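[audit] Reproducing an earlier prediction to check determinism. Same input, same settings, fresh worker. If the tokens differ from the archived copy the diff job will pick it up downstream; this log only records the rerun itself.
[audit] input (249 residues):
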Amino acid sequence: MGRLDEKVAIVTGGGVGIGKAIARSLAAEGAKIVLAGRSMERLVQTAQETAALGSTVVPIPTDVTDEAQVNSLFKRTMDLFHRVDIMVNNAGATDGGPLSEMSVEMWDKVIATNLKGPFLCTRSAMRIMKSQGGGRILNIGSISAQRPRVNSAPYASSKFGLVGLTTVTALEGREFGISACCLHPGNVQIESSAEEIGAICGIPGYSSEPMMKVEEIAEVATLMACLPPHMNMFEAIVLPVKQAYLGRG
């Protein structure tokens, strides 16, 4: 028996990286998984791998910045499973540079993916969870929500904003049995190389910084998702022991 048997979870950004690892971990606990993301090819591959764990997995291509696509994601999920128990807002964009040189297009892209997307998904999830008597919304933040790096204005701003969204969701959801929480990872090694991320964000020496595996972050996300309904781990900060965090800047 898994801790999430018969539960239904939607994971955005579910085709790769942290989202993929979380989907697999939730599936291993018995949850039915809806994978949302922009690349159908990646979603299908992840769905096939995850289904091998014995769970039902459905890939639904979705751009979380598009209201109509988010509405369709939840309609299709309800048509298939008739409920949503866990909403994992994981889809994210990373970009940056000096504020004095930043384009509006870059700013809008990151804010739309990292903040508008979770708002749209949370709104739809809340409507369903209110009517069914509860649920859990897990937002994937970042330690940049507490201590940003230089050249990271859109990313840091979006993650600070996500904490605010999480707090309001928890406040508005508690009388309906809905909990909201935020997991803040430090450095995580994903499919994009550390060199690529460092170059995009202007972080010298990023590739030599300590890293965690996506599976290790997924363990914490699953712990948060599996808590009894009357409990909530509102925030969790998880980072490599040797990563600069306290006093970084």
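[audit] rerun output stored. Observation attached for the diff report: The beta strands are 8-12, 32-37, 57-61, 86-89, 135-140, 178-185, 188-189, 212-213, 235-238.
[audit] end
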